[in-house]
Design brief:
The complex is a heterotrimer. By secondary structure, chain B is α/β, with parallel strands linked by helices. Chain C contains seven helices and seven strands, in the order H-E-E-H-E-E-E-H-H-H-E-E-H-H. Chain C has helices at 2-10, 30-36, 90-106, 111-119, 139-146, 176-179, 181-185; strands at 12-17, 20-25, 60-65, 68-73, 84-86, 153-156, 163-166. In chain C, strand 6 (153-156) and strand 7 form a beta hairpin. Classes of the chains: A alpha+beta, B alpha/beta, C alpha+beta.
C-alpha cells in the first residue's frame, strides 16, 4: 500500500544514523521504488530512471540493488519470468544480517555477471546429488585458496631476487626483443611450471611491455598457467579420435578418482588435471598422460594404482 | 670431427651421397625402429635402447656392419611398435622389448621371425612391407622416406638424394623458372585452404617491399590429425629443403617455422636438423657457393588453434596475441611486420623437392584434374587400421576406409566419416564412393582440411559430435567478432538443451539461421567454417535430431541425460564386480542376487559395463526410460511443460 | 617522396553507393566514403580516432566488383575504383537482422540496436539472454591504447571466456582517476561498473 507521507527525506534520516552512504544512484533507486507503489525488476528500474538520470548504467543498478538488499533497505520479492523483483522495505531501521561475500582480489573475478541468473527459477530441476557435489567443490576450492595464499606469502625476498636473475638470463637469450615475448614466457613456464606474478612484473619492466599486454597473452594461450601447478600433471586427451572412442567416460572416471575438475589442482598440490586437444597417439585412444607416461583407457582400479605409485 | 664439414657444391653433394650409399651397402643388416608418436607411446624408445645395448653386449665385433636407426612415423600406428629390416624390407609388427635379441640373432643368420609378421584374415603371412594390405593400396611418395632415414641424422637424408633439388635450383635455375614449374604442377596448399601454392608464391614475389619472409605453418591444431608431425618429426630436412627452394623462388632470405608447443619432440628434431644443415653449409651464407643466403628460426606456439590461421600466425610471430586480422590486405602483400610474407603448410613444402627432382608432369600424373599429387590423411577413430595413410587424390572414401583401413573396428556398422577437423563436416554412408579431392569434398558440404579423417560407427551420436566440435571451435575462437563468439555460444546452449531432452521444435530453424549468419558475417575462416558440422549433420542425420527433440531418445545411446544404465536381472549373477567399480556407489544388491543401479545417483561413466564379466554382460544402456521419469515428474509437479 | 604524397592526394575514385555516384579519395574506407556523402551505415565498434577493429559486424555491406559480389566490413575495407556498394541489399539485411537478434540477447538498450530492432520488427529474441552486457567491441581497450597511450585496460582470455578488465598492478593504472574517458566511450554504458573497482570512483557517487 502506498503511503504518501513517506518520501526520500524520511529515508535519508533513518539511514543516516546507520552510517550507510546514500549515493546518487541509491537515492534514485529508492526514489523510483517509493513512487512506483509496486514491485519492479532491475530492468524496469533502469528504464524509469534512465530518462532523468541517463548516466546511471544498468549494471550500476544491479550492483546497488544488491547492496541495498544487503542493508535491508529493499526486499527481493519472488520471480516473474526469471527476473527478481524488488520492493522498498517499509521499516529500514532494522538492519538485517546478511553474509559477507568478498570480491576476489585479483580483479579477474570470473563469476561476476556471467549469466548465472537463468538457474534461479528452476530449483526443482536440481537433484540432490548435484547440490552435494557443488558444496563439496566449494569447500575444496576454499581450501585450495587458503593453501595458495600460504604459498605466496612464503616467498622470501632472496628467492625473488634469485628469480629475477634466472629470468634475466632467459630474456637475454632471446635478445631482449619484444617480439619474442611468447618464447620468453614459454621458457619461464618450462622453468617454474607457472608464471609467477613478480616474474611478469619484471618482464614488463625490462622489456617495456605494458602489463596488460602480458596478461592478455598469458590468458589467451592455454599452455600458460597463472597459478602454481601440482607436482604431477595428468593430461587427458580430448581429440576427436579419443572422443569417438569414449574419452568423456575416461574423463569422468579420473574426475571421480581425483575429485577435481579439469584445470584445477588437488588441495595437497600433488596432481593437476588438464585436458588437451590431441596428444598425437590416436591408435591408443582414449589416452591419458600421467606424469609423461601414456596409458590407454585405464579402469578406475588401474588409475587408483597408478596414482598411489606416484605418491 | 673435421673442422670444416661444409659441402661446397652440387658435385660435393652427389659424391657424399654416393659414398654413404656404398657404406650402407656393406652392412649386414639394417634395422629401422619406428619412434613416431604412436609407437613411442607403446615404448618404442625402450626397444631402440634395448637393441643398441644388445649390439654392444653380444655383437661388439660386428658393430659397424649392423646399423640400427630410429626413424619417424611409418604410418601403421595400429600395429606399433614396428621394426623393418633392410635391405629385404621385412616388416615386424607389434614388437616387444623381449623380442629384440631374437630379431637380431635370427636376422644375422638369414632367418625370419614369423610370429612377428603380418597375418591376414586367412592366416597368410606377409613378409615385405609393401605387400601388407595397409601399405599396398597407398601411394607413399612422402612417407616412404621416413623408414629409410634416421630422423636426427642429416647424412641419411643426403644419402637418399636430399638437398640435390636445392642445389639444382640455386645453381642452375632462375627464380621465375622455379615458380613456373611449381605453378605448372598445380600444387594446392595442403593445410586446408587448397589455394595453389605457385600462385601464392608469385603474388609474394611480385609484391613490393623488402625483406620478404617465408613461413612454414606447423601449427597442426586439428584434434586427431598428426600428419604434419609425421613429416616434420620423421623427415625435417625435406621440409627445410622445400622451404629454401620456396625462399629462392620468391626472393626471401629469412624463414620461420612455427611449430606448436604441444610437439616438443618435433621442435627438438627440427632444431637438430637446422644445426646439422648449418654445419654442412646448407643453411647460412653463400649456400653451396651459389651466393644465396638463407637463415631460419623456430618459433613455438603456446596452445591456440586459431593461431594456425595465416594472419593470426603472423601476428603471433610478431609477439602479440594470435588473433586473425581483417583480410582485405593479404599477407602476401603485407604480412610479417608489414612486409610480403608467404605462408605454406608442412606437407606443401615437403612436396617441393620431389616436384623439382621429377618434374611437374610427374606430379600431375597422379591425382585428379584439379587436385594433383598425393595427400596424407590421419585415419583414426573406429577403424581397424589407424595410422597415417598417403593416397593419390581421387581415391574413393570407400577404398580408404575398407581397403586400407580394414573396415570398421569390431565389425560394427559404418555411420559417417568426419573430414577436415573442426572446419569440416560429416559424410554419410551413401556418399562413400565420393572421390577424395579438394572440390568434391567441399561440394558435399565438408572440406579436406589438413587431412584428419575420423571414422564413426553406430555408437557415435551425431548431435553429440556436432556439440563436441562446436565446443572446440568456441573454446579456440579468438572471441573478437560477435557472430562467431555469440553465435557459437548460443548454438552450444541450444545443443545442450537438445541433449538434455529439452529441445524445442524451433531449434532446428534457429540452428540453421545461426549457421548461415556465421558463414556470412564472421571475420575469419574459423567462424565461417565452424557451422559446417552443424549443417552437414542436419542435412544427413536429421532423424537423430528429431529423435532427441520429439522423443527424448538418443539412438546411439551417448547423450548422458537421455540414457540410463540398467542391469538385466535375467543375466546378473550378483557377483558384485560392478559395485566395486562404481565410483559413486550407485549399485546395490545382495550377494548372488541381481543388483540394481540407482539412476538418480548414477553418473553414467561406464565403469560397470567394463567391470561386468563377459559371460554375464548384464549391464546395458537404455534410452527412452528417462521419458518415463519426465512424465512422472510432470504429473507430480502439476503439469509443468518441459520439452515444448 | 613528397611528389608521391601529392599524387596520392590527387587520386580519386568513382564508386556507386546505393545507386548514388560519389567521388572519394584513395585510402578512405567504404564507411568513411558513405559518411561523407550522408549515407548511414550502422556501427558499434567504430570511432574516428582509433583504427577499425571489425568486431561488431554491423557495418557489413555488399560490394560488387567485376560482376562478383562479396560481403565486407565497411569500416575497414579500402575503396577501390569502379565498385558498386549496396548498404541495404537483401543479403545484407538478412545478416543484419540475425545479428541484431543476437545483440538483443546481449544488450538491448543501445539506441542503434533499438532503432534497427524497430526497423526489422523484432520485438523479442529467440536466443538465451546473457547478463554480461559487455559486447567486447574493444573501444575502451583500443582508445586507452591508441589515444591515451596508457594501456590500463586489456582483453583477457579468449573465445567465449573473453573479457575486458583492468590489471590493478599495471603501472599505468594510476592515471585512471584523472582520465575515465573509457566510461564515456562505452556503447553499452555498463563499463566500468562491472568491475567492482574500489579505487576508481563511480560517476554516480
Amino acid at each position: 500500500m502506498k503511503n504518501t507521507k513517506r518520501d526520500i527525506e524520511t529515508y535519508k534520516q533513518k539511514i543516516k544514523k546507520r552510517g550507510f552512504r546514500l549515493t546518487e544512484t541509491r537515492m534514485v533507486i529508492l526514489d523510483v521504488l517509493l513512487k512506483s507503489s509496486g514491485e519492479l525488476d532491475a530492468e524496469e528500474l533502469f528504464f524509469l530512471s534512465y530518462k532523468k538520470y541517463p548516466k546511471i548504467g544498468l549494471a550500476t543498478i544491479y550492483r546497488n540493488l544488491g547492496l541495498l538488499e544487503k542493508e535491508g533497505l529493499v526486499t527481493k520479492v519472488g520471480f516473474d519470468n526469471n527476473k527478481a523483483k524488488y520492493r522498498i522495505e517499509e521499516s529500514p531501521e532494522l538492519a538485517v544480517e546478511k553474509p559477507d561475500i568478498r570480491p576476489s582480489k585479483s580483479g579477474l573475478d570470473k563469476n561476476k555477471f556471467t549469466g548465472d541468473a537463468g538457474y534461479e527459477g528452476n530449483l526443482e530441476d536440481y537433484r540432490n546429488v548435484e547440490r552435494i557435489n557443488t558444496i563439496q567443490n566449494q569447500l575444496s576450492q576454499w581450501l585450495g585458496e587458503l593453501n595458495k595464499i600460504k604459498r605466496e606469502k612464503e616467498l622470501a625476498l632472496e628467492d625473488v631476487i634469485k628469480d629475477f636473475g634466472k629470468v634475466d638470463k632467459i630474456v637475454s637469450y632471446h635478445e631482449y626483443q619484444k617480439s619474442n615475448l611468447i618464447q620468453i614466457l614459454l621458457d619461464v613456464q618450462n622453468e617454474y611450471r607457472w608464471l609467477p606474478k613478480h616474474v611478469l612484473l619484471y618482464i614488463s619492466n625490462r622489456l617495456d611491455i605494458p602489463l596488460t599486454d602480458i596478461y592478455g597473452i598469458a590468458t589467451f594461450y592455454k599452455y600458460f598457467n597463472l597459478e602454481p601447478q601440482g607436482k604431477h600433471s595428468i593430461i587427458a586427451c580430448m581429440g576427436t579420435a579419443c572422443h569417438v572412442r569414449g574419452a568423456m567416460n575416461l574423463l569422468q572416471r579420473i574426475t571421480g578418482v581425483l575429485g577435481i575438475k579439469p584445470g584445477d589442482t588437488t588441495v595437497d598440490y600433488k596432481f593437476t588435471l588438464k585436458t588437451v586437444n590431441c596428444l598425437g597417439c590416436c591408435a591408443l585412444g582414449p589416452v591419458i598422460m600421467i606424469s609423461n607416461k601414456y596409458y590407454s583407457n585405464p579402469s578406475i582400479g588401474n588409475l587408483k594404482k597408478i596414482l598411489k605409485q606416484l605418491n | 670431427m673435421a673442422i670444416n664439414n661444409k659441402i661446397g657444391s652440387y658435385r660435393g653433394l652427389l659424391e657424399k651421397a654416393d659414398k654413404l650409399q656404398r657404406q650402407l651397402n656393406n652392412a649386414d643388416a639394417i634395422f629401422s625402429v619406428c619412434c613416431g608418436p604412436g609407437c613411442k607411446a607403446y615404448s618404442a624408445e625402450d626397444i631402440y635402447t634395448a637393441m643398441v645395448d644388445e649390439l654392444k653386449k653380444n655383437y661388439a665385433k660386428e658393430n659397424d656392419k649392423i646399423v640400427i636407426r630410429r626413424t619417424g612415423c611409418h604410418g601403421y600406428c595400429e600395429k606399433g611398435p614396428i621394426i623393418i629390416v633392410y635391405p629385404e624390407s621385412i616388416c615386424y609388427l607389434q614388437v616387444k622389448k623381449d623380442d629384440v635379441s631374437e630379431i637380431i640373432d635370427r636376422t644375422l643368420k638369414g632367418e625370419i621371425v614369423e610370429r612377428l609378421l603380418y597375418k591376414d584374415d586367412e592366416g597368410n603371412l606377409v613378409t615385405k612391407e609393401s605387400d601388407i594390405p595397409f601399405y599396398k593400396f597407398q601411394n607413399r611418395v612422402l612417407l616412404s622416406s621416413n623408414s629409410k632415414i634416421d630422423s636426427r641424422n642429416i647424412d641419411d637424408y643426403i644419402r637418399i638424394g636430399g638437398y640435390q633439388s636445392l642445389a639444382k635450383v640455386i645453381g642452375k635455375m632462375r627464380p621465375e623458372e622455379v615458380l613456373q614449374e611449381v605453378k605448372k604442377a598445380n600444387l594446392r596448399g595442403r593445410g586446408g585452404g587448397g589455394f595453389p601454392a605457385g600462385v601464392k608464391w608469385e603474388t609474394t614475389k611480385n609484391a613490393a617491399g623488402e625483406p620478404k619472409y617465408i613461413i612454414v605453418n606447423a601449427d597442426e591444431g586439428d584434434p586427431g590429425a598428426y600428419m604434419d608431425r609425421g613429416i616434420l618429426e620423421g623427415n625435417p630436412h625435406s621440409v627445410l629443403e622445400g622451404l629454401m627452394i620456396g625462399a629462392y623462388a620468391i626472393g626471401s632470405n629469412m624463414g620461420f617455422i612455427y611449430v606448436r608447443q604441444e610437439y616438443p619432440l618435433t621442435v627438438e628434431n627440427v632444431n637438430i636438423a637446422i644445426g646439422q644443415a648449418k654445419e654442412y653449409g646448407l643453411i647460412g651464407e653463400n649456400i653451396l657457393n651459389s651466393g644465396f643466403n638463407f637463415d631460419v628460426k623456430v618459433h613455438k606456439g603456446a596452445g591456440s588453434y586459431v593461431s594456425g590461421e595465416s594472419s593470426a600466425l603472423t601476428t603471433a610471430i610478431e609477439g602479440s596475441v594470435g588473433e586473425p586480422r581483417l583480410k582485405y590486405i593479404h599477407t602476401s602483400e603485407s604480412g610479417l611486420w608489414g612486409k610480403p610474407t608467404n605462408l605454406n603448410n608442412v606437407e606443401t613444402f615437403a612436396n617441393i623437392p620431389l616436384i623439382i627432382k621429377n618434374g611437374a608432369d610427374w606430379f600431375k600424373s597422379v591425382g585428379t584434374k584439379n587436385s594433383s599429387g598425393t595427400k596424407i590423411f590421419s585415419l583414426v577413430g573406429k577403424v581397424k587400421n589407424t595410422g597415417l595413410v598417403e593416397v593419390p587424390m581421387g581415391i574413393t572414401l570407400r577404398d580408404i576406409i575398407y581397403k586400407i583401413g580394414g573396415g570398421i573396428k569390431d565389425d560394427k556398422k559404418f555411420k559417417a566419416v568426419q573430414t577436415g577437423g573442426p572446419s569440416g563436416g560429416v559424410i554419410p554412408g551413401q556418399l562413400l564412393d565420393l572421390p577424395v579431392d579438394f572440390d568434391e569434398l567441399t561440394k558435399a558440404g565438408s572440406m579436406m582440411g589438413s587431412g584428419g579423417m575420423v571414422i564413426m560407427d553406430e555408437t557415435s551420436c551425431m548431435v553429440n559430435i556436432a556439440h563436441y566440435f562446436l565446443k572446440f571451435s568456441a573454446d579456440e575462437s579468438c572471441g573478437k567478432c560477435v557472430p562467431c563468439r555469440e553465435g557459437l555460444r548460443q548454438m552450444i546452449y541450444i545443443y545442450e538443451r537438445i541433449m538434455e531432452g529439452k529441445g524445442r521444435e524451433e531449434d532446428l530453424t534457429l540452428l540453421t539461421d545461426l549457421s548461415l549468419l556465421l558463414k556470412e558475417a564472421s571475420l575469419c575462416a574459423l567462424g565461417t567454417t565452424a557451422p559446417n558440422i552443424v549443417l552437414t549433420t542436419l542435412k544427413y542425420f536429421k532423424e537423430e535430431y528429431e529423435a532427441h527433440i520429439y522423443y527424448n531418445i538418443c539412438p546411439a545411446k551417448v547423450c548422458i541425460p537421455l540414457i540410463s544404465y540398467v542391469i538385466d536381472e535375467n543375466k546378473c549373477a550378483g557377483c558384485g564386480s560392478c559395485v566395486k567399480a562404481c565410483p559413486v556407489d550407485a549399485i546395490r544388491g545382495e550377494s548372488k542376487k541381481p543388483h540394481i543401479i540407482d539412476s538418480e545417483i548414477c553418473i553414467k561413466c561406464g565403469s560397470c559395463i567394463e567391470a561386468c564379466p563377459e559371460k554375464y554382460s548384464a549391464v546395458e544402456k537404455k534410452t527412452g526410460l528417462v521419458l518415463e521419469k519426465v512424465k512422472q515428474k510432470k504429473e507430480m509437479k502439476g503439469g509443468m511443460d518441459f520439452s515444448k | 617522396m613528397s611528389d608521391k604524397k601529392e599524387n596520392l592526394k590527387k587520386i580519386k575514385f568513382n564508386i556507386i553507393i546505393d545507386g548514388q555516384k560519389v567521388e572519394i579519395n584513395e585510402g578512405d574506407t567504404v564507411l568513411q566514403a558513405a559518411k561523407k556523402n550522408g549515407i548511414h551505415i550502422p556501427t558499434l565498434c567504430y570511432h574516428e580516432k582509433i583504427k577499425p577493429h571489425g568486431a561488431c559486424r554491423l557495418c557489413l555491406v555488399e560490394i560488387e566488383k567485376n560482376s562478383r559480389s562479396k560481403i565486407v566490413a565497411s569500416c575497414a575495407y579500402p575503396v577501390e575504383d569502379d565498385i558498386i556498394v549496396h548498404t541495404e541489399s537483401q543479403k545484407v539485411e538478412q545478416i543484419r537482422k540475425n545479428l541484431v537478434e543476437l545483440y538483443l540477447a546481449l544488450f538491448p538498450f543501445n539506441p542503434e540496436i533499438k532503432r534497427l530492432a524497430k526497423k526489422y520488427k523484432l520485438s523479442r529474441t529467440r536466443f538465451k539472454k546473457e547478463n554480461n552486457y559487455c559486447i567486447l567491441c574493444g573501444l575502451c581497450v583500443r582508445y586507452c591504447r591508441e589515444v591515451k597511450k596508457n594501456n590500463a585496460i586489456g582483453f583477457v582470455g579468449r573465445g567465449i571466456n573473453k573479457k575486458v578488465t583492468f590489471i590493478p598492478d599495471s603501472a599505468y593504472f594510476k592515471y585512471c582517476e584523472n582520465c575515465m574517458e573509457c566510461v564515456d566511450i562505452c556503447p553499452t554504458g555498463v563499463f566500468p561498473s562491472n568491475y567492482g573497482m574500489e579505487r576508481v570512483p563511480q560517476i554516480s557517487d
